[in-house]
Amino acid sequence: MRFWYLTKATRLSTHKAIRSLRMSSSSQNQPSRQTPTPTPTQTPDHDPPNWMTLKLPPAHILSHLTDAHCHPTDLDQPASAYDATSLGAVAAMATEPENQPKVRSVALARPWKKGDTKPSSSGSRIIACFGYHPWFSHRYTLQSPPPSKEEHYTSLFFPQHDSSTPPPTKKGQLLGLLLPFLPDPIEFGPLISQLSSDIRDSVSAGNLTMLGEVGLDGGARLRWPTSARHLHPDAETDDREGDNWNVLTPFKTSMAHQIAILERQFEVAIQHGVNVSLHSVAAAGPTFDTLVKMRDRHRNRFTNRINVDIHSGGGFSPDHWKQTERNLLNVYASPSIFVTSRSSHAAELIRTISKDRMLVESDSHDLTLCTRAVWGATEWIARCRGWKLEDENTPAWTLDEVIAKEEQEEQEGARTEERDEVWAVRTLERNFARFMNMAE
Ligand SMILES: [Zn+2]
């Protein structure tokens, strides 16, 4: 998830403020511009820790963790920033047609080779993730040749209105007014071909690869085009300048269109056998239904071959999560400080996710924040679950040793729940390796 209505320059300048606000605000769709409230140092047991000030463990411990979902190519970060990141790997998401090549090139420079269970010796490796984010799904059409703008946007924003022109309502009139300023619809077929070849090339080079960030968002609204600012009712009185003018329209892209765009991308993931990083906001029902549909359509090719990570837990309620886990054996969740903590039932959700379905992520686009955000989430998960947290007194270990120990315990018949010691970093590391089918 990103704040797509901000331009890159604004995102840079407001980045830190937004991050802090995300921790205290509820699931609003827009960042406000107040001064961030500092998080208290003493937090109740199940509140997230202050990720900005918490003490980091030694680098060898961090090197066992992977950020399962972040956006480092959103900012132009030098190679030295990747060298300086202590995490073992980061999964770098793509979101729009424009940033797929950036992900391709950073991931090629620091790939994580499939089957390599050794920790990285020089900064973070990158898992290439290609895909089209639901916030931009209004840009794409599944028709060829593309329909007119009027027909396209009417069908997306007024799905019940059986006509190729906007309805004669206030909202319909607004669409008519803004149409000249909206982009022409892009054919999705060629974008799918590009997606498929990016994923195929990355997989055949032996590099860990995923589909992402894709998904469904029931809350996202179209940004008011800045070129149509003069048409906004507040244009005269609102003196915010340039990039600071971030106003949303009432238009939401129909769930049917979002599902169609998502399904096309899922088909690519299933074809190439790659995992999916899935955005799900205010769309728990449609997300579940789409996953079940994929399961029923593809059976083993879906459930045994690929895994799905619900990014930041998707704001699922604990009950919804339980239902998802019961029905879909290949679904994981990766709590984050920035997004998951905004939900009032976050701690309960973390306690509900099965021990072997838990991953961890930052959702940061600033690479320099990924390590802190991932460590903060790891500490938070450990506290919510009563897991032990590795620290400077923990002797070095290898993933191979963790896997061998797990196999031995399985042979001895000790059930996971009965073992007294659960170590957070080793559990998350083992889960990520299982998620990526690295050691099966
Ligand atoms: Zn994201």
TrEMBL record:
Record-linked InterPro entries: Metal_Hydrolase (IPR032466), Metallo-hydrolase/TatD-type (IPR053044), TatD-like (IPR001130)
Top-level division of the source organism's lineage: Eukaryota
Molecular functions per Gene Ontology: hydrolase activity, acting on ester bonds
Any Pfam family matching the protein: TatD_DNase
Chain segments carrying region Disordered: 21-51
Segments of skewed composition (Low complexity): 24-43
PANTHER family: CUT9-INTERACTING PROTEIN SCN1
Name under which the protein is recorded: Metallo-dependent hydrolase
